[in-house]
Amino acid sequence: MPINAIDKMRVTLQNRSLLAIGEATSAGSVAEILKVIWPVIVLQFALAIWALVDLVRRDNVRYLPKVAWAVIVLFVNIVGPIVYLAFGRGE
Questions:
Q1: What domain range is 42 assigned to?
Q2: Closest CA to 47 of 69, 73, 72
Q3: What is the rounded CA–CA span in Å between residue 38 and residue 10?
Q4: Number of folded domains in the chain?
Q5: Long-range pairs of 50-58 with CB within 8 A, sequence gap ≥ 24
Q6: Alpha-carbon span 88 to 78, nearest angstrom
Q7: pLDDT confidence of 11, banded at 50, 70, 90?
Q8: How many CA atoms lie within 13 A of 84 on its CB side?
């Protein structure tokens, strides 16, 4: 049974999409992505460290227990440390 033009186009498009997926996961594109997001990663770690150090040093915190604040700081990326620093710090 001969392959018609539509089937040839379908195979060509499938091969191209597979190639595009392979190119998107290549080492070059990962390096490009890291170039873009590294400042966000650094910001996340800096905020988390600052918030955790502040949390450990403080005697009193507001609204939640220290353990809850620690979980929020560690698991809610970027927003967690900011929320703690803005609202959770005691007097």
A1: 5-88
A2: 73
A3: 39
A4: 1
A5: 50/81, 50/85, 51/80, 51/81, 51/84, 51/85, 54/84, 54/85, 54/89, 55/84, 55/88, 58/89, 58/90
A6: 15
A7: low
A8: 30
Residues 6+ apart with CB under 8 A from 55: 61, 66, 69, 70, 73, 84, 88
Residue 64 buriedness (CB in 10 A; 0-12 / 13-18 / 19+) = middle
Residue type, position 51, single letter: A
Structure tokens, 51:
């918030």
Structure tokens at 56: 């450990």
20-73 pLDDT tens trace: 555 555 667 878 888 889 999 999 999 999 999 999 999 899 999 999 999 999
Single-letter amino acid, residue 5: A
The pLDDT value recorded for residue 9 is 65
